Amino acid sequence: MIDTGTAVKELCKLKPKGVMGRDRKIFGEVYERLLAFYGPQGWWPVTPPGGCSLVYSGGPADDLQRLEVIVGAVLAQNTSWSGARKALENLSSHKRLDFRSLLEISQGELGLLIRPSGYFNQKARRIKNLLSFLYDRYGAHWERFFAEPVPGMRRMLLGLNGIGPETADSIILYAAGRASFVIDSYTKRLFYRLGVAGRSVAYEELKQRIEKALAVESALYNEYHALVVVHGKERCNSRAPKCEGCPLKPLCARRGVSPPSR
Length: 262
Prior knowledge:
- This protein has helices spanning about 5-15, 20-40, 65-75, 80-95, 100-105, 105-115, 120-140, 150-160, 165-175, 185-195, 205-215, 220-235.
- It is an all-alpha fold.
- The chain has 2 domains: about 5-40 and about 185-250, Endonuclease Iii, domain 2 (Orthogonal Bundle); about 65-175, Hypothetical protein, domain 2 (Endonuclease III, domain 1, Orthogonal Bundle).
- The protein is globular, with a radius of gyration of 19 Å.
- The model is unreliable at about 10-15 (pLDDT under 50).
């Protein structure tokens, strides 16, 4: 595990030159400020051995927990995390949260168990397709997928129905533990408001800018994305951002934010 704070500080010491230099400075400073304000987040939440509820304990430690993260990444599509969490807890309590059980369960039964996540029939089909792909390609040693080169891993995931860039990058970063930065609505909103990116910036454009500006370290990407999400939920929300006391206020262009009433 790297010291992500030190890694970013070293990058920020470099003299900014051109667009790359400016990106390195702003993306590095945002990370430093968020980490100092919120502290480490311990993402992705997983169920501890013998437990029944998810815990933010630093991410998956074994293949069973990595599988849980894969399933959770699909369940989190177009829904709140509370719904995805409930669906995962349903699977766990019914002893279905392992690779063999998820392969054998019918799509209909799976859909009923993950109903709290919304779009449950669609997500059941996507989970079954994803796990069937892993089994067809790697057999009982499905976890070998995590050792694939990141570009190839990402191409394979994006080739599956219902797996878009955010889900693919979440699986690569949090389940495989490999460096692939996740861009979500919180990330786009934050960097738009800061004046760093356009309102409708393309996923791949923002992803590439961030990855070029930062050290290629999975632990750094993990912590950075987690901090952006907690900041988006607690302060930089869509309707009523809490700008007073925000750790990023000195950097913020306040794009799209109404000025305070007098």
